[in-house]
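Lab notebook page, bench 4
Experiment: in silico fold of construct C2
Operator: M.H.
Input chain length: 216 residues
Purpose: comparison with the prior construct
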Amino acid sequence: MRFRRALALVVVGSVGVVSGCAGGGERETVVVTSTQWVEPDSGSVAEPDAGETKAEGEAENAADWRTEYEWVLSHPGDYPVNAAAQYTPDGTYEYALVEATGGGTPELLLAVGGSDTTPVIVFTIGDDGKARASTDVLMMGAPGNGGGRLTVLASAGGRGVYQISGSSLGKESVSELFTLHGTSLSGGAKETFPSEGHLPDHQLIDWNPVSSPQPL
């Protein structure tokens, strides 16, 4: 239907001539054209299709957040890790895209590589269209010389990001859902589950090196 309608439209061009003096006293003529789509039967100007306008807006927004996240991946060292995080950086970085706020635009997880533990910074797109980093971090890895294990999982329902804690020999792990409030990560109720399995809302995260931005 949209294709047939487009064929029924005719193009009406308007031409404006603006004259001015060029060098040597000669007059310079500039032709300005504009185009409108007009319904052939009624002669009324056709408005852009609402679906097409929405799609164009969504494509523009997608390009914006991709551009913001690409900049983060190009400058991962520009974002300081919360001083409370105990880790020894090894100079590597990985990232993943998850839905953590239910807003439709994905969040970016930046894992700052460490020898024992790896802090994870959560980036979201602010009202100004710019990427902003969380002041709090989640943790992955094995802290210290003990048997503790820390993992970060996504929420299948887009409700936040899970911090999983357990031990190498333990049969149970603890899941805590963290949600974003501005640039802060706030923990919620904790739930225990068998270490060999996952809770229904748990979703594994695919991590990518920052040198490979194609998943964006």
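Observations: The longest helix spans residues 50-74. Residues 1-24, 26-35 have pLDDT under 50 and may be disordered.
Next step: discuss at group meeting.
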